[in-house]
């Protein structure tokens, strides 16, 4: 068992579920293959599972906050049907330049800023240094680092593109995996 204060932060689109650009339709929820048993295993080992997602479609008028919450609620119902329970879902509705008030703002929550992870840590009692952030974009990896976590890049979603640009990074993700299933398997083996 890991310490009860350790968390695995998961990006949503392109990491936990397949990327469908700016969707608000729960019919688009398609989980990445093989993740259910590994999410169950991670939680059984003591990891908290927390989804951290940028949803700038709200700022741009493509969806409302209520629609994001509804989408997330349906996703949770589908996860629970597989005996997977999430400890939290945090989303950022803002964008620094595109959209309308009050959502166009240089907020503290939009990844790569660590605001959502810091809020989750406060609310759920998470030890960030012992936690992992898993995502498909540079903003996910850097949000993890900016919060003091370690980060894993997955090659689903925009991940293949992200992995192709690593030569310009001054620090590399702690691990690169083909998908979330491989990433969870790797964490389970490393941090028993
Ligand atoms: Mg993503």
What does this structure look like?
- The chain is an alpha/beta fold and 192 residues long.
- The chain has a single domain (7-190), classed as Rossmann fold.
- The chain is built from six helices and six strands; from the N terminus they run E-H-E-H-E-H-E-H-E-H-E-H.
- It has helices at residues 35-44, 65-80, 115-124, 138-146, 159-164, 180-190; strands spanning 7-10, 48-54, 88-92, 132-135, 150-154, 175-177.
- The structure holds magnesium ion (MG).
- Magnesium ion (MG) is lined by residues 11, 13-15, 135-137, 157.
Q: Quick summary of this structure?
A:
With 192 residues, the protein is of the alpha/beta class.
Beta strands, count:
6
CATH class descriptor: Alpha Beta
Q: Helical amount among residues, as a percent range?
A: 25-40%
Radius of gyration: 16 Å
Q: What is the CATH architecture descriptor?
A: 3-Layer(aba) Sandwich
* Assembly classification: single chain
Structural class category? alpha/beta
Q: What's the arrangement of strands in the largest beta sheet?
A: 3-2-1-4-5-6
Relative strand content = 5-15%
Descriptive tags:
alpha/beta, binds magnesium ion, 192 residues, globular, 6 helices, six-stranded parallel beta sheet, Rossmann fold
List the helices and strands and how they pair.
Blueprint: E1 7-10, H1 35-44, E2 48-54, H2 65-80, E3 88-92, H3 115-124, E4 132-135, H4 138-146, E5 150-154, H5 159-164, E6 175-177, H6 180-190
Bound molecules: magnesium ion.
């Amino acid at each position: 068992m890991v310490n009860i204060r350790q968390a695995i932060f998961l990006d949503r689109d392109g990491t936990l579920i397949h990327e469908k650009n700016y969707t608000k339709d729960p019919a688009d929820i398609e989980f990445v293959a093989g993740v259910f048993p590994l999410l169950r295993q991670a939680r059984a080992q003591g990891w908290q599972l927390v989804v951290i997602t940028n949803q700038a479609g709200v700022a741009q008028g493509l969806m409302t906050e209520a629609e994001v919450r509804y989408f997330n609620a349906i996703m949770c119902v589908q996860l629970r049907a597989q005996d997977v329970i999430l400890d939290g879902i945090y989303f950022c509705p803002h964008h620094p330049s595109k959209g309308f008030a009050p959502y166009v703002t240089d907020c503290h929550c939009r990844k790569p800023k660590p605001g959502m992870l810091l809020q989750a840590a406060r609310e759920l009692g998470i030890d960030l240094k012992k936690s992992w952030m898993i995502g498909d974009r540079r903003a996910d990896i850097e949000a993890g680092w900016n919060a003091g976590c370690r980060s894993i890049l997955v090659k689903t979603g925009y991940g293949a593109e992200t992995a192709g640009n690593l030569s310009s990074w001054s620090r590399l993700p702690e691990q690169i995996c083909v998908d979330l299933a491989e990433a969870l398997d790797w964490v389970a083996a490393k941090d028993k």
